[in-house]
Write a structure and sequence with these properties.
Blueprint: H1 15-18, H2 22-25, H3 30-40, E1 45-49, E2 62-66, H4 70-74, E3 100-104, H5 113-123, E4 128-133, H6 148-157, H7 161-168, E5 171-176, E6 179-180, H8 201-205, H9 215-231, H10 233-238, E7 246-247, E8 251-257
Length: 258
């Protein structure tokens, strides 16, 4: 997460209200963990900015988590280090304090993206690794047929790849992260072949974009999907995804090296 809100939550979403179920629906996906570890390379000390409940924190490195949301900090398992209450835009560390910096599903929350990325670059001698979504690809997902307001919100919130790369500088690589069927990190596209999951209020609540649309808008989207699932319309259009082993969506990994 990014900057503090008056209610003690963080960023542009109220995680005091929507964050309680994250440990149930937003587990670290092993395929993404492997990609992040590879991007971090031999770094021994890592700062995790917007650390949330601790997903994707390497257990074989010295990790310093930073998380401004009290609700998210409270969900961190005891085996992980306690998170420092601070924001991306003002990291309480000296220059070059870590071998690497990482952030997953967080940069779209920050009140000042460039300031947060500059801070990550300042405190890390090596790679800065960002897992995020490419806003140019978000609305290609089939959910856009049912909840266009939700995906439009997502597309507006995620910063463009070029903007992130420009802020980080150095040598920047961007790689698509294919989403495996059964992905346990329940962001929207994780359910590409399991559409019934969107009927679960808990699954929707663990995707912050749903919190930006009205309850009426969300209810209409869910009812539209429910109807298409019941009468077979969804399967006629997208049924092949039920057996697709992976999905190339908007998820990307950006690695910037000085």
């Amino acid at each position: 997460m990014g900057s503090h809100a008056p209610d003690g939550s963080a960023g542009d979403a109220d995680y005091g209200r929507i964050g309680q179920g994250y440990r149930t629906y937003r587990l670290p996906e092993p395929a993404f963990e492997k990609a992040i570890l590879a991007a971090l390379g031999p770094a021994r000390s890592v700062v995790n900015v917007g650390a949330g409940a601790g997903s994707y924190e390497p257990v074989d490195r010295q990790v310093t988590p930073v998380e401004p949301s009290a609700s998210m900090r409270a969900q961190r398992p005891s085996r992980l280090a306690a998170a420092i209450d601070a924001t991306a835009e003002s990291l309480p560390f000296g220059d070059n304090a870590f071998d690497a910096a990482m952030s997953t599903f967080s940069v779209h929350q920050w009140s000042d993206l460039e300031a947060g990325l500059a801070e990550m670059r300042r405190v890390a001698t090596g790679p800065v690794v960002i897992m995020t979504c490419d806003p140019d690809l978000v609305e290609r997902f089939w959910l856009n047929d049912y909840a266009p307001e939700v995906l439009a919100t997502e597309a507006r919130r995620y910063p463009g790849v070029d903007r992130i790369a420009a802020a980080l500088g150095g040598t920047v690589e961007t790689a698509s992260l294919p989403i495996p069927f059964g992905c346990v990190d329940g962001f929207g596209e994780a359910y590409y072949g399991r559409p019934e999951t969107f009927l679960d209020p808990g699954a929707r609540k663990a995707n912050s974009a749903w919190s930006f649309v009205s309850e009426e808008t969300a209810a209409c989207a869910v009812e539209h999907l429910r109807t298409d699932l019941e009468d077979g319309t969804w399967d006629r259009r997208h049924g092949r995804l039920r057996t697709a082993s992976r999905f190339e969506g908007s998820l990307i990994l950006i690695t910037a090296r000085p």
